[in-house]
Design a protein that fits this description.
heterodimer, A: alpha/beta, Rossmann fold, B: alpha/beta, four-stranded parallel beta sheet, 8 strands, globular
Chain lengths: ~375, ~325
C-alpha cells in the first residue's frame, strides 16, 4: 500500500516545522501555495460570515485534496478556531471528497494527539511520535528565533536582499536536519550569519509593533506582506505573536494570561478571550517602550480583537501613539492596504521629524540660557 | 442606592434572577426600557463598528442608564461548566464598557467554573460588597433563585401546552432558533415573532427546554461543540424538529459562533424547511416580511400537498 499523503493548511513558513509530525502518519505533502484561487475556493464554500482564516484553510484543503491528499490535519484553539475542524470536515464531505481528518481539537492535549495519530497510522509507535514532536517543537522554536532577527534587521541591510537570502537558506537547511541538536546548532550558525550581515542602520530608526489575530499576523499572504512593506520603508518591525509563544501559553495555562492581564492594567481587568488580552498587553508594553506606532490586524468580525480595540483606542489616546487598524475580509484590496500603510509611514516620519527639530531647538535654547 | 440593569444580552436569560436579587437587597433597581430605535442608534454610536449587533444594543442600554443610576450591573460570565466555553464577548463585556464609558461605576460578578467561581458565590459576594450584610445577601439570593426557577418552569410548561394545542387544532408551528437576547429583544426578535403570529403561525421558542436535556441531545448533531448556549440551541433543534413544521434561525450580524454552528446544523437537517435570517441595524422590515411570508407560504403548501396525498391514499 502506498504511503498516505498528509497535508495541513499553510501558515507562514511553519510548513517546515510541522513536517516531522506529518511524517509520522505518512508522506508529507505540501499544500499548493496560497494564491488568489485558493482564497476564491475558500470563500465559495465557507459560511458567509465566518472569519477569514477558516476560508484560507478550507481553500488549502480543497487544493490539496485535488492534488491527491489523503489525510488532513487541523489544530484547535480559542474562540472559533476550536470548532473549525468539524464544520470544515462537513463541508468537504458534502463536496464529495474522500479523506481522513485528524482533528487536534482544544481539549485533546498531548495524549489525545498521540492517540489520534495512532488511529490513522497504527504502525507508528509512541516513541517515534515523541521524537517527531520534539523535532517539530525544536524547529518551531528556531524558526521563530531566526525570523524575529530577520524582521528587526531586514530593512537596513547594506546589500539589498542579503538577509532574505540567508533566511531562505536557513529554511532549506532546517528541512534537511532531522535531529533536535542539529536544529539548535543551525539556529546558532544562522543567528551569527545574520548578525554578521552588513547593516546601515540609523541610531534612532522608526519602530513599529504589530499586534492582533494570530493567523493574520503569521501568514504573510493574508496581510499582503505587511512586514516586508514596512521593512522597505526602513522601519524596524516587532511582533510578539509566534507559534512558540502560543505553545508556551498552551502548556503553562493561566500563568501567561494572568501576566498579560497584569501588563494591560489599567485598560483591562479581565481576560478578553483568545489573543485579545495579548494584543492589548503587547501594545501597552511597546507603547511604554517608546515605539513610534502600532499596527493592529484582525479578520473581519474577530470578537476577541474587537473587544481589544476599545482598550487600544484608549492606549492610543493616552500615550498619543498612532494605531492603525486593519480588518481583512474577501473584499479587502491590496491597493487600499498599501495606500494606508504608506500614509501611516509618512505620518510617522513627519512626527519623528517634528520631534527631532523640537528636541534640537530645546537643546539650543538650553545652551543659549547657559551662556 | 440605584442600580441599573441593561435590558440586553443575558438579561433576557437571567434578568428575573438579577432583578429580584437586588430588589430583595432593598436596592432601587432600574431596568432600561425595551430596545427601541433610539437605543440602537446610541449603541451604534458608542461601539466599534464591527461589534455584533447584540453588543451594540447593550452599549445603547448602558448609555441610556448611565446618568440615571449610581451603579450599573454587568455580569462577567467566563465559563458555565468545565469543557464548555461561551462566546468571548461575555467575558470581555466589563472591559468594553469600562473602556467606552470610563465614568460609569460597575458592579460585576464572575462565573468561571474552571476557577470554581459559581453564580451563587459571585452574586452573594456582590451583595455583601453593596450592603455589607452576608445574611441578607444569602437570603436574597435564595429567594431570587427560587423566583427565577418558578418563572423558568412556567415558561417551559406554557410551551408544552402550546405545542399540544397546535397539534390538535392543526395549526402551523414554527421553531425560532436564536439566543434569548435576540428572540426577546424588542428590536430584533419581537417584530418577527409578532409578524409570524399575524401569518397564523405559532412560534415555539428554542430556549424553552431543560438545559441538561438539550445539551445531551445536541451531541446528536455535534459532539465537539463547546459553546454552552449553542449546545442548548442545537438540543432544542433536535428535540423539537419532529414536532414543528419549520425552523427559522435568527442571528445578529456578525455573530461569531453562529456563523459556524448554524451552517453545521442546517447541513444536518433533512426534510424540514428552514431558513436563516441575519439581522443588522439597517433592517428595513419590508424585506424581512417578504421572506417570512414566502417561508410560511411554502410550509403551508407542503402541508396541503401532504394532506391531499393522505386523503387520496
Amino acid at each position: 500500500m502506498p504511503a498516505k499523503k498528509v497535508t495541513f493548511p499553510h501558515m507562514g513558513d511553519y510548513y517546515y516545522a510541522f513536517k516531522p509530525l506529518a511524517e509520522l502518519i505518512g508522506e508529507p505533502m505540501i499544500a499548493p501555495p496560497i494564491t488568489k484561487k485558493t482564497i476564491e475556493l475558500g470563500f465559495k464554500y465557507s459560511p458567509e460570515s465566518v472569519c477569514i482564516p477558516f476560508k484560507y484553510n478550507l481553500g488549502n484543503y480543497i487544493e490539496a485534496l485535488e492534488a491527491g491528499a489523503d489525510v488532513l490535519i487541523q489544530a484547535g484553539g480559542g474562540c472559533r478556531f476550536g470548532h473549525y475542524a468539524e464544520t470544515q470536515e462537513e463541508i468537504l464531505r458534502k463536496l464529495g471528497y474522500k479523506f481522513e481528518f485528524s482533528k487536534l481539537a482544544n481539549d485533546y492535549g498531548l495524549v489525545g494527539f498521540a492517540r489520534d495519530f495512532k488511529r490513522i497510522n497504527p504502525e507508528t509507535c509512541y516513541a517515534s511520535i515523541a521524537r517527531g514532536l520534539a523535532l517539530s517543537l525544536a524547529r518551531i522554536h528556531c524558526i521563530d528565533k531566526i525570523a524575529d532577527k530577520v524582521r528587526k534587521n531586514v530593512g537596513f541591510e547594506a546589500n539589498n536582499g542579503e538577509i532574505e537570502a540567508i533566511y531562505q537558506k536557513f529554511l532549506k537547511d532546517i528541512d534537511k536536519t532531522h535531529s533536535v541538536f542539529g536544529v539548535f546548532s543551525l539556529r546558532n550558525k544562522y543567528s551569527k550569519l545574520i548578525g554578521a550581515a552588513k547593516l546601515d542602520k540609523p541610531a534612532h530608526c522608526l519602530r513599529v509593533g504589530i499586534v492582533g489575530e494570530l493567523y493574520m499576523l503569521m501568514e504573510p499572504f493574508s496581510n499582503f506582506y505587511l512586514e516586508k512593506k514596512l521593512a522597505e520603508r526602513n522601519i524596524e518591525v516587532h511582533r510578539h505573536v509566534t507559534v512558540s509563544g502560543i505553545l508556551k501559553e498552551y502548556f503553562t495555562g493561566d500563568f501567561f494570561i494572568k501576566q498579560h492581564v497584569e501588563e494591560s492594567k489599567p485598560y483591562l481587568k479581565h481576560h478578553l478571550g483568545s489573543h485579545g488580552t495579548e494584543s492589548v498587553a503587547c501594545a501597552h508594553k511597546m507603547v511604554k517602550d517608546g515605539f513610534d506606532g502600532i499596527i493592529h490586524l484582525k479578520p473581519f468580525g474577530c470578537m476577541p480583537e474587537i473587544s481589544a480595540i476599545s482598550a487600544l483606542n484608549n492606549i492610543s489616546k493616552n500615550y498619543k501613539i498612532p494605531i492603525l487598524y486593519f480588518s481583512f475580509d474577501s473584499q479587502t484590496s491590496q491597493a487600499g492596504i498599501e495606500t494606508r500603510i504608506e500614509a501611516f509611514c509618512d505620518m510617522l516620519y513627519m512626527k519623528k521629524k517634528a520631534r527631532d527639530t523640537a528636541s534640537t531647538q530645546a537643546k539650543l535654547d538650553k545652551v543659549a540660557t547657559v551662556k | 442606592m440605584r442600580i441599573g440593569i441593561p435590558r440586553a444580552l443575558l438579561f433576557h436569560k437571567y434578568g428575573k434572577l438579577w432583578e429580584s436579587f437586588f430588589r430583595e437587597l432593598g436596592m432601587d433597581v432600574i431596568v432600561s426600557p425595551q430596545t427601541n430605535k433610539e437605543i440602537v442608534a446610541r449603541g451604534v454610536n458608542y461601539s466599534i463598528d464591527e461589534s455584533c449587533l447584540s453588543v451594540k444594543i447593550y452599549m445603547g442600554h448602558i448609555d441610556w442608564l448611565k446618568d440615571k443610576v449610581d451603579y450599573i450591573f454587568i455580569p462577567n460570565i467566563v465559563c458555565m461548566q468545565s469543557e464548555e466555553e461561551l462566546c468571548v464577548k461575555f467575558m470581555a463585556l466589563v472591559d468594553i464598557v469600562r473602556n467606552t464609558f470610563p465614568e460609569v461605576k460597575i458592579i460585576e460578578y464572575t462565573v468561571d467554573a474552571l476557577k470554581h467561581k459559581t453564580e451563587a458565590a459571585g452574586l452573594i459576594g456582590a451583595g455583601i460588597k453593596i450592603t455589607g450584610n452576608p445574611v441578607k445577601s444569602v437570603k436574597a439570593y435564595v429567594k431570587a433563585r427560587a423566583e427565577y426557577h418558578k418563572a423558568q418552569n412556567e415558561k417551559l410548561e406554557s410551551q408544552i401546552i402550546k405545542l399540544q394545542k397546535n397539534k390538535e387544532m392543526g395549526r402551523l408551528s414554527i421553531l425560532v432558533v436564536s439566543h434569548p437576547y435576540t428572540t426577546y429583544d424588542n428590536f430584533l426578535g419581537t417584530p418577527i415573532i409578532s409578524y409570524l403570529e399575524k401569518l397564523n403561525a405559532d412560534v415555539i421558542y428554542s430556549d424553552r427546554i431543560e438545559s441538561e436535556l438539550a445539551k445531551k441531545l445536541s451531541a446528536n448533531i455535534s459532539k465537539t461543540l463547546y459553546w454552552s448556549y449553542h449546545k442548548e440551541l442545537l438540543g432544542a433543534v433536535e428535540y423539537y424538529k419532529g414536532k414543528v413544521d419549520g425552523i427559522i434561525f435568527l442571528t445578529t450580524f456578525p455573530c461569531g459562533p453562529d456563523s459556524l454552528v448554524i451552517n453545521l446544523c442546517q447541513s444536518r437537517l433533512e426534510n424540514i424547511p428552514n431558513i436563516m435570517i441575519t439581522l443588522d441595524e439597517l433592517e428595513s422590515g419590508v424585506g424581512l416580511k417578504t421572506r417570512l411570508e414566502s417561508f410560511v407560504d411554502i410550509i403551508n403548501l407542503k402541508k396541503k400537498i401532504k394532506n391531499n396525498l393522505k386523503n387520496a391514499g
